[in-house]
Predict the 3D structure of the following.
Amino acid sequence: MLNELDHQLFLFLNGLHVGWLDHVMTFISSTAGWIPFYAVLVFLVFYKYKWKGLWVILGVAVLITCSDQIASSVFKPLVHRLRPCHDPLIQDLVYLPNGHCGGMYSFMSSHAANTFALATYIWLIMRQFYKNIGWVMFPWATVVSYSRIYMGAHFPGDVICGAVLGILLGFGIGYLVRYIVGKSDKGSSRPSSTL
């Protein structure tokens, strides 16, 4: 039942395509296109945390490694759910804007896991300095995640579960980094802001 609903919702969302949006969604779905955005985040981290920003960036590296590997190397080979474009039941109905289908399995979405992990982490770490940063990070993660449905790579259920994984990891590693930075603040003779 849930699988059938997921198929129907996918076909509806994937079917909402227009020519000009293909290029936009292809860009949004890419990793390289967001490098300037990531560079701004790194700048903001070091601007506020100075050398302690290294802990924050290390946390990002651990976070993305965990979210990506859990989604791609644990769940995908474990669940073996075919991508929509490989699913014989609907593959002829799937719209692929760039004609690229991707790997064989789709559950869960690494893009959704990674972007929601980063969004949650950055919001948790930076909200004391930028109270509205969540209004940037979470819509960004949502749009990137939706692009994977538009591109024909993932079912909505893949995206939702990936997002949940990312949020959980973002909170877990975010609180760990807050603890580490808080301890380094206590060990420092200079006054500094706490997370």
Remarks:
- Residues 189-194 have pLDDT under 50 and may be disordered.
- The helical segments are 2-14, 19-29, 35-49, 53-79, 110-126, 134-150, 156-186.
- Residues 39 and 45 are 10 Å apart (CA to CA).
